[in-house]
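Running low. Got one?
___
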Amino acid sequence: RTADSASSIRNSFKQVVIESALWAAAGDALGWITELTHGSAGLRNRIGSTRVKEPVEWRRLIGGRNGPRVLLPAGTYSDDTQLRLAVSRSIRGNGVFDVETFAKIELPVWPTYALGAGLGTKAAALNLSRRGVNWFSNFYDRGSQKYINGGGNGAAMRVQPHVWSSRGDEDDMLLNVIRDSVVTHG
């Protein structure tokens, strides 16, 4: 290969990653509007329509039942994209996923700006802010939230950056996905 063709391949891959990230965020922004609406009546109550055709501003409770009801601008994405970005920031320039950065920096800070999220991921993030709790020993037990039963789709929503950084090395990708998942979901 010539230097020009290698550069072209890198630029092409970079463009694919950027477009993939943007499409994922756009899908999240549209899908989050409908999340937990309890049918078309709930959606109509939320946005004044029974269908989402484009990003629209809407209101949502943030932080649970006792949280504030906030007006979200059109295109606002949820915790899924927020945590996908946190994983992306935890991948070093050489493509290595730094699970310590994700677990001890990104996740403990994330609740301060979280938009949505499952109870398990929130409990995991809170527990990781404690000294002595490591990514591989984040065995929280808070009321009805227990690490071992910490199901949900949170870890699945964070797979994309691992695919991008793996550059085709499936074993490395799977190991990073498992590390990422272990941080929050039993």
Summary: The mean pLDDT is 89. DSSP finds seven helices and four strands in the chain. Helices lie at 3-34, 39-47, 79-89, 99-109, 119-128, 160-166, 170-184. The first strand starts at residue 58 and ends at 61.
